[in-house]
Design a protein that fits this description.
19 helices, Group_II_RT_mat, GrpII_Intron_Splice-Mob/Def, about 500 residues
């Protein structure tokens, strides 16, 4: 493929009438295939794909299915309002006309501050775009993501298709058991707020030539923020959390880090093969591996603490041109025997009980445990008058979702402890509500043989998370499939 060639997909896409999802999937598969085949190619003629009716339909469906669909932007319209007052076909037709004619303008995002988890007292700033902006951002993401996914390195896992936090934890476990036991546990300070637009757009332009698409991306970056106090602020840096396209733009910006640290693992790199890595260790040279999830990352080092500190300084220098800095409070060099927290897990190299063998273990960290307990307490307050069926349904949703995330850790005892905690909270609430004695509780929740019965409300039963099977999550390495390559087979 020649560089800077046009995509020219419109004719082939219209040869056979397809449903919107299939049409968009085929478009994405083609873009991804071409991007993989020619790493230097810059894509033009993408604008028609952004405002294609099928793209907008799929984009709206994704926005409507998002948890933030009930949140309103500065125009006070939610997705439900659009569906009820305007109608989706009319809304999308009008939006498509605005995009095609150049009349579309991105509106400022509405600022919403939410407390960060863990009870630190700090807040996270979210930016909630209007529904129209969210749909256009989703359409942009549908077109741009398959192109940039061809360039992203296998060491990043956040906000990427077919990848999850458990993959990042499995990679840490894999390398930790192979001698990579010094850890640079790093966090980028206010990453989404501080990304410099100029180098970010330069990285976008390295793959995208279509000026109209670039103008849309820039418009969302510069849209501004309406603060909670009603003040309109310009956005000179950053990409607001809450925007549909923000995670993709953050990954594009942070790929500069992945490329730099992972370069030694490329086919011609000094760590490309096991043999080369072994030779480096024989010469007392360090090996390293980065594992990144959004703006949280760790660098695992097979070497010394001094080697890890040197990488710390090097990485800080690499991030500087993007306007990013490492958080001094959250960045540390630790040995894996001390343990560290990452993505809610506590990872530690320790001796197996009763033996002299040492292994890397993955536990549930304290912060997410405190967080889920706080949610359980909120649902089971002693004086609560909420319907018991609602309380049990909510508890099942909260606890099972939490447990499914952590079910690949050493979590069996934690799950049992949490079941016990929840049971006592419910019993305390029911005793207060119905003025029961302990004898009343035993009479209602035990059989004649003394076996305890589950707490129920009609057909709704409190389900134990300790019954969820705890299994080892297998490291998938380079075998994580691309969704678009799957569509071609």
């Amino acid at each position: 493929m020649p560089k800077d060639a046009q995509v020219n997909t419109s004719a082939s896409l219209e040869e056979v009438p397809l449903g919107p999802r299939q049409r968009v999937s085929e478009m994405q598969a083609k873009l991804h295939r071409w991007a993989v085949a020619d790493p230097g190619r810059r894509f033009d003629d993408l604008f028609n794909l952004v405002h294609d009716p099928a793209t907008l339909v799929v984009a709206f469906d994704r926005v409507a299915g998002n948890r933030g669909a009930r949140a309103a932007g500065v125009d006070d319209l939610t997705v439900a309002d659009v569906e009820e007052r305007i109608g989706v076909p009319g809304f999308l037709n009008d939006l498509r006309t605005q995009i095609k004619t150049g009349a579309f303008r991105a509106l400022p995002v509405r600022e919403k501050k939410i407390p960060k988890p863990g009870g630190s007292g700090k807040v996270r700033r979210l930016g909630i775009p209007v529904v129209a902006d969210r749909v256009v951002q989703a359409a942009l993401k549908l077109v741009l993501e398959p192109i940039f996914e061809a360039d992203f390195k296998p060491v990043s896992y956040g906000f990427r298709p077919n990848r999850r936090a458990q993959d990042a934890i499995a990679e840490i476990h894999f390398f930790g058991t192979r001698g990579y036991r010094w850890v640079l546990d790093a966090d980028i300070q206010a990453c989404f707020d501080e990304i410099d637009h100029t180098p970010l757009m330069a990285r976008v332009r390295s793959r995208i030539k279509d000026k109209r698409v670039l103008a849309l991306v820039r418009a969302f970056l510069k849209a501004g923020v309406l603060t909670e106090l009603g003040e309109l602020q310009d956005t000179h840096t950053g990409t607001p959390q809450g925007g549909v396209i923000s995670p993709l733009l953050a990954n594009i910006a942070l790929s500069v880090l992945d490329e730099h640290v992972h370069r030694a693992w490329e086919p011609d790199g000094v760590m490309a093969t096991q043999r080369r890595r072994e030779r480096r260790r024989l010469k007392d040279l360090p090996n390293w591996r980065i594992v990144r999830y959004a703006d949280d990352f760790v660098v695992l080092v097979h070497g010394t603490a001094q080697d890890t500190e040197a990488l710390h300084e090097e990485i800080a220098h690499v991030l500087l041109p993007m306007g990013l800095r490492l958080s001094p409070a959250k960045t540390q060099v630790v040995h894996m025997s001390e343990g560290f927290d990452f993505l809610g897990f506590h990872i530690q190299w320790r001796r197996k009980r009763g033996t002299n063998k040492w292994h890397v273990y993955t536990f549930v960290a304290q912060r997410p445990l405190r967080s889920v307990k706080a949610k359980i307490r909120a649902l089971t307050h002693k004086t609560s008058q909420q319907d018991l069926g609602y309380v049990l349904t909510s508890l099942n949703m909260v606890m099972r979702g939490w447990a499914n995330y952590f079910r690949h850790a050493v979590a069996k005892n934690t799950f049992s402890t949490l079941d016990n905690f929840t049971w006592w909270r419910l019993i305390r609430m029911l005793r207060e509500r119905h003025h029961w004695t302990w004898s009343d509780v035993r009479r209602r929740f035990t059989t004649a043989s003394g076996r305890w019965l589950p707490i129920t409300a009609g057909e709704i039963e409190l389900r134990k998370i300790s019954e969820i099977r705890v299994t080892r999550y297998r490291y998938r390495s380079k075998s994580i499939p691309s969704p678009w390559l799957l569509q071609q087979t």
